[in-house]
Design goal:
Layout: E1 5-6, E2 12-13, E3 16-17, H1 21-31, E4 38-39, H2 40-47, H3 56-71, E5 76-78, E6 82-85, H4 93-109, H5 113-124, H6 142-167, H7 171-184, H8 189-202, H9 205-223, H10 229-239, H11 261-273, H12 288-300
Antiparallel strand pairs: 1-2, 2-3, 4-6, 5-6
Helix pairs in contact: 1-2, 2-3, 4-5, 4-6, 5-6, 6-7, 6-8, 7-8, 8-9, 8-10, 11-12
């Protein structure tokens, strides 16, 4: 897309900056709707908010004539009710921003995350999201109002970029923007899900699980509900992440534990759902490592080595 008219980062046409406040305002009002343009009445309201000129229609005509003289006679065309810009949506940055937002969202829905990232970054290249009024501008200025209206689109593109970064595998790069979004949008579970994956990959699973627990507790305390299915799925994914199934230590038991299938299955199921399981008591004649080792082996998908054994003291007969 080639930008002919810029209104976000600056007000300029083909690189030529426009400094006259009312000409800038006229361009901003006309850019609100490139297809239908802007009525004369709307232009008068936007350009003279504090008081209407004696001949409003004539005042607008004079401004349009000045704009045509500076930027070209073909830039502004007349309509039955007012005027419009002779530019399409790809040629005006504030409209192109909307196109990039829609294109990024469409590619994300199609699971083309590289394409979603490219569209989001192209949109963000147009503007840094700042609205700050400069000299001669205030909150009633049409340029400032137009920029304020596009802040939502800018934030949407920031979100799309962060999600796409995570989904194309650039997790270290995605972590900081996702963390910022999670702070600004504390109930956005799609953002939180990707942040958990990124933190697990960069800072470790413990950090990700701690963040999830804090979110779950806060949600339950504030709203009396639990995380949505998508976030719970990521939590289960983190719990069951691949870990080395064999530990250094005493070799695993060569034969299965007999007669305790139901107990072993119950403990193995708990190990897949939570991080810590405490086994209290044991069958007569069994070491605690053996009582825990069998379900651990089933939960991790392979044999387990015990870091040590518990040794019982035997009483000697008198």
């Amino acid at each position: 897309m080639t930008t002919e008219l810029a209104l976000l980062s600056q007000v300029a046409h083909r690189g030529r900056e426009i400094t006259a406040p009312r000409l800038r305002g006229l361009l901003a009002l006309l850019a609100e709707d490139l297809r239908t343009g802007c009525s004369t009445g709307r232009l008068v309201e936007g350009l003279w908010p504090d008081g209407m000129p004696e001949r409003p229609g004539k005042a607008v005509q004079v401004l349009v004539s000045r704009l045509r003289a500076q930027l070209g006679a073909d830039l502004v065309v007349s309509t039955p009710t007012g005027y419009r810009l002779a530019l399409d949506e790809t040629q005006v940055d504030c409209s192109a921003l909307l196109l990039y937002e829609a294109a990024s969202a469409e590619r994300a829905r199609a699971r083309d995350h590289a394409g979603a990232l490219a569209q989001a970054e192209a949109g963000l290249a147009l503007w840094d999201g700042s609205v700050g009024a400069g000299a001669g501008e205030d909150l009633h200025d049409p340029v400032v109002a137009l920029r304020a209206d596009r802040v939502r689109v800018f934030r949407s593109l920031v979100r799309s970029r962060a999600l796409a970064l995570a989904r194309v595998g650039r997790r270290e790069e995605a972590t900081a923007p996702l963390a910022g979004l999670a702070s600004a949008l504390p109930r956005d579970e799609e953002v939180l899900a990707e942040l958990l994956r990124c933190e697990a990959a960069t800072a470790g699973r413990a950090a990700a699980l701690t963040r999830y627990d804090a979110y779950r507790r806060g949600l339950r305390d504030e709203l009396g509900t639990d995380p949505g299915p998508g976030l719970r799925s990521v939590y289960q994914e983190l719990l069951s992440a691949d870990v080395a199934p064999v530990r250094h230590g005493v070799p695993h038991e060569p034969n299965p534990l007999l007669g305790r299938d139901a107990d072993v299955a119950a403990v193995a199921g708990l190990l897949r759902e939570v991080r810590v399981v405490t086994v209290v008591g044991r069958a007569a004649g069994q070491d605690p490592p053996r009582s825990c080792g069998e379900p651990c082996g089933r939960a991790t998908g392979g044999p387990l080595r015990h870091p040590g054994r518990c040794h019982r003291r035997r009483r000697r007969g008198r």
